[in-house]
Amino acid sequence: MQIALVTGASSGIGRAAAVEIAKRGIGVVLTYGRNRQGGLDTVAAVEKEGGTAVALPLDLGASGTFDAFRDTVTGVLRDTWRRDTFDHLVNNAGLAHSALIEDMTEDTFDLLARVLLKGPYFLTQRLLPLMADGGAIVNTSSMAADSSPEPGYSAYAAMKGGLNVLTRYMAKEFAPRGIRVNAVSPGPTRTRLGDDGFTRFPEVIPALVARTAFGRVGEPEDVGALIATLVSDESRWVTAQNIEVSGGYDL
What we know:
Blueprint: E1 3-6, H1 12-23, E2 27-32, H2 36-48, E3 53-57, H3 66-81, E4 86-91, H4 106-127, E5 131-140, H5 154-174, E6 180-186, H6 193-200, H7 205-210, H8 220-231, E7 242-245
Parallel strand pairs: 1-2, 1-4, 2-3, 4-5, 5-6, 6-7
């Protein structure tokens, strides 16, 4: 059985990706940050589909914990699947914060950098020895890095832009092992990012819908389905790509 590790899977795109991957018969190690119950709920959702999942805590902004996390993953792989390696890594965990450049603090900037760029960089580095050849990595980026700039998202978009560059370098460096690396860039999607912004500010939704060709905002399952496709053998000839998942936002 193949195994995927999905970070930030206690809700939203990460949960959808974990469930969609499990539907393809792939075991899932998933991580959660502060929302332990959400992680357990994702495990239950995977098991409802007949799959197997294990939830582990991970603070993506604390790279000093990554060695211990790798050791924990090693034990889970051995105890749950009798394997020493896993096949696919989905670097999905993240956070969002908006502030104009004139109002951005260094502490907030550094937090975004640790979670959105440094975290995926060094977590991937630490987990590489556990990855089997011929697998796949998917990095969750954002349209904010490439689309028309929205005031307030300079730091967030800059980190996601860095992740897009990192995706191409990972694809180049890991190609000798047959590991494919791609990014997905969601448009406006109904997740809990930005302190559950869509729930707190529903008035922003009609304007987003009006700018989307398909006439609605994205759902986590829309993105999760593509992530599951990218880790599958169906995408065996796809690497170094950044795929927009937006329903035609600003088309």
